[in-house]
Design brief:
35% of the residues lie in helices and 19% in strands. The protein has 464 residues and is of the alpha/beta class. Strands 4-20-19-18-17-11-7-6-5 form a nine-stranded parallel sheet. The chain has a three-stranded antiparallel sheet with strand order 1-2-3. Strands 8-9-10 form a three-stranded antiparallel sheet.
């Protein structure tokens, strides 16, 4: 059966909603932010660190993994989950955005895209069917259709041609998945539910026992998540439980489950076996900022009945007001019972605006890329830690943050690491930024479960 999406709460003022997305490798609490693991790694972060932070799903890059080390090698290793030792869900893009961004190195045809590798100049061809084949070999939980990404600004004619091509490619991708005899399994490889990790979702057991979704109020009136994302057991068939990292045996303030003084009940639902779920294929709505074209694209994709829908082609140079308006319009065209994914967006205020407009899933390289360039996101705004003003600052990176970096290291030390070129600087900044993004999403979700998102939204808008 395909993935299942259930809505637990909806805001009465905005279009925000909180839900659960059941996938072959576990349940994802939405709204969710997905850190980008371009080449099978989130730069500067170990997988156990990501798990401790509460990362529920990673994004992999089909284009880069296809070129290096190659999807066949990853398939033969048991899929991307086993290859990179990541037991939780993975979403892979189709590679279309990267191919289109090559500009002079690529050529779009009706059949697909010819492109030259940015590594060695070798020629390659990516069709809708080939993109599906690669993602099935990777064993993705959520796959994306190949689409054509048009640069901003673009003429109406160029956008119209692009959405027509994207729609035809989407149908071919869906047909390719339907033809796949193993429903996600290649001849030699493994499907999304066959990565070698045995997954048991203990959250469902807790919910069935009447525990519900837990949350607690912080002293400042905001909400802290229950840390439910860490309640999984992973086993390799024929062996005992995976050996935990010794660090994970020590209570971690970043992932502790708070007391259950307040509980928000969630609707009961039948327990789902992860192995019974097939990988999902999402369609991508294009059309620039033109509402007529967005409507045409959405309606055509709805006729193909995808398991989820993405809003693509934004955050490419258009004014933010136009981006937000387009997101709100497009999300309103999509079915209520399917997850909605805003691709490549964005800043913390973009996440807040997207959730308020009905978006469930986000990804962006910003928290990790900015971290490597000495830019940290904090409750007080962006901090450029290399600035001379922090040379004698003994305070934490973010006084309001509970991550291990902010609890242990000073701004002056972090600045020293960046100024001297020490690799620890980008690593610590990345850890903090991912924590900040995830914590922002957790607090949004809990405010939804408490029915207080509108107030939370207004408070956060003033901060951002």
């Amino acid at each position: 059966m395909p993935i299942k999406f259930e809505i637990l709460a909806e805001d009465k003022v905005t279009r925000a909603r909180a839900g659960l997305l059941h996938t072959p490798h576990g349940v994802i609490e939405t709204p969710i932010f997905m850190p980008v693991g371009t080449c099978g790694t989130v730069k500067g972060m170990r997988q156990e660190e990501l798990e401790a932070l509460g990362v529920q799903i990673l994004l992999g890059n089909t284009y880069h993994l296809y070129l290096r080390p190659g999807h066949e090698l990853i398939r033969d290793a048991g899929g991307l989950h086993r290859f990179m030792s990541w037991p939780r869900p993975i979403l892979t893009d189709s590679g279309g955005f990267q191919v289109m961004s090559l500009k002079s190195l690529g050529k779009v045809t009706e059949d697909g895209v010819w492109f030259k590798s940015h590594l060695d100049g070798s020629s390659h061809f990516l069709s809708p069917e080939r993109a599906v084949e690669i993602q099935l070999a990777l064993g993705s939980d959520i796959m994306m259709c190949l689409d054509e990404c048009v640069e901003y600004p673009a003429t109406y004619e160029a956008l119209a041609r692009s959405i027509a091509l994207t729609t035809r490619w989407a149908k071919r991708a869906k047909d390719a998945v339907a033809r796949d005899s193993g429903q996600g399994k290649t001849e030699k490889g493994q499907g999304a539910g066959d990565s070698g990790f045995e997954t048991r979702d203990t959250r469902q057991e807790t919910r069935d026992a009447g525990q519900g979704v837990r949350a607690t109020r912080l002293g400042n009136g905001e909400l802290e998540s229950s840390g439910l994302a860490s309640n999984f057991e992973f086993r390799i068939p024929g062996s005992g439980p995976l050996t935990p990292n010794p660090e994970s045996l020590t209570p971690n303030p970043e992932s502790l489950t708070p007391s259950s003084e307040s509980r928000v009940p969630s609707p009961a639902s039948p327990a789902l076996s992860p192995q019974s779920l097939a990988p999902a294929l999402f369609g991508i709505v294009q059309g620039g900022t033109d509402k007529d074209l967005r409507r045409q694209s959405a309606e055509a994709l709805l006729n193909l009945d995808f398991e989820g829908y993405a809003v693509g082609g934004l955050a490419v140079g258009e004014p933010k007001s136009e981006m937000y308006d387009t997101v709100e319009f497009t999300a309103g065209l999509l079915p209520r019972d399917r997850p909605r994914y805003l691709m490549g967006v964005g800043t913390p205020d973009d996440l807040l605006a997207g959730v308020a407009r009905g978006i469930d899933m986000f990804d962006c390289v910003m928290p990790t890329r900015n971290a490597r360039n000495a830019c940290a996101f904090t409750s007080e705004g962006k901090v450029i830690i290399k600035n001379a003003r922090y040379a004698r600052d003994e305070g934490p990176l973010d006084p309001a943050c509970s991550c291990s970096v902010c609890r242990r290291y000073s701004r002056r030390y972090l600045r020293h690491l960046f100024v001297t070129g020490e690799m620890l600087g980008p690593m610590l900044a990345t850890h903090h930024n991912i924590h900040f993004y995830l914590d922002t999403m957790r607090r949004m979700r809990q405010s939804l479960l408490f029915g207080e998102f509108a107030d939370f939204h207004n408070r956060m808008r003033r901060k951002f």
